Amino acid sequence: MATAPIEPPQRLVSALGGDPEGPVRAWLAALPELVQQRLDSWELTLDRVHAPGGSSSLVAFVRQQDGTPAALKFPVPGRAAAQEAAALRVWDGWGAVRLLRSDETSGALLLERLQGSVSLRSLPEAKALLEAAGTVRRLWVAPPAGHPFATVAERVAADAERLRAAGDSAGAGPLVDEALELGRSLPAGVTEEFVLHGAFRQGKVLAGERAPWLAVGPAPLVGERAYDLARLVLDRFEDLLAGSGAAAVARRRVAKLADSLDVDRERLRDWTLYRAVRAGVRESVSGDRRRGESLLEFAAYV
């Protein structure tokens, strides 16, 4: 049982506290009580709340009744929490953190404990990409019958209007037009679909005891592998842009990752452009404008 007040990390509060009347704000205010309820119900002992933590969930390091360490995660309410649990059940610890328990009402997930402060970003670039490729390969399994995941085609279609409107505001018209055309055409050419992590990058792969590296925090989809791999191409793109010959280096990265995982180079290039433009426009309009412009610059290079 916890003996000290449970406080959400400041990073989470800052990210979610902008709307004082919104449902997410209400969830944030109730979070200490929700955590305590789950600690009591699952007979867990709180070690500490992970800080600074992330911007879309609270993670607490806990111990189970037999003393085994675990992590208790509370994602922001919504469909994403249920989707994460469903994906972790599909993988059952193969390449990803193992789901021990879940609670549909609160969205709480009890996970095996990993080394939250040690991700693939702690490794040199070449080694990190090698380990990341080996990890994501394990996640690409056939979708089970009756799965609850959206498809890449559905996600892209849902984003199209928002991307077009935001692209006009960001002044990225030609690149957005190209990305929208790719979003329309690429899903039609898919011949084989897999369960995808959806948000795979080096920071989403943590050191573990059961396996050296395990993926966390999926935003699962069903679609082609190139879509998943495209997000990995974007990792540490700022470092790439800061060096000489950025365009050539970006293309080599696409080729190297595609060849290492038997993914078509052109499709990976196209999905990388799409995801770079989508992220760049979003950042330019509502986030970090400088980062958004850098992502759009990267998109033009691939």
UniProtKB/TrEMBL annotation:
Stored Pfam families: APH_6_hur
Keyword Transferase: yes
Listed name of the protein: Kinase
InterPro entries in the cross-refs: Kinase-like_dom_sf (IPR011009), NH2Glyco/OHUrea_AB-resist_kin (IPR006748)
Domain of life: Bacteria
GO molecular function, one term: kinase activity
One GO BP annotation of this record: secondary metabolic process
